[in-house]
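Lecture 7 notes: from sequence to structure.
We start with the chain below.
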Amino acid sequence: MVKFLAKDIILFFWMKINKNLALLIWFIYLIFIFFLIPLFCKKFETLLIPQIILPNYVKLLGIVFIIFGFILGFWCFVVLWKQGEGTPSFLYPPKKLVTTGPYKYSRNPMTVGAWLIFIGESIFLQSPLLFMFFLFVVIPVSIIWIIKYEEPFLEKNFKNTYREYKNIVKKRFI
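Predicted structure tokens for the same chain:
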């Protein structure tokens, strides 16, 4: 009885630590991807590429893309947290398959949100280097990640439910 109780207590605290660790790692990842990489690209592109000056109304379009991307990403996170009972991180993955909210329209809406943010940052910062990074690094890595890791993980964990979901929601936008 005591051994069983101790095991449950350890599991409970590991899950709490795991959840907090997953959230921390996800937050650090977001800072790196959406703030540090764009700043790095903007800082060092002047050495490589001539500066592009865009009109303010075009920069405003970049802000619109960024806002929509963040809203979509936040919506995805909330739906994963509340309905899936997990995070986008593999350290604390969702326990339930989420097929509502933005996931009703796209199998990878968080990726779509991230892509919108990158496009918006490229426009707003007037950064051809960041846009090239998006085209030649972010898009291929995202697609490879989804095909090689995310989809097999979801099929393994959610089996037929995920296969049915794949038949209903095709790869719209990714």
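Points to note: Residues 122 and 131 are 5 Å apart (CA to CA). The mean pLDDT is 85.
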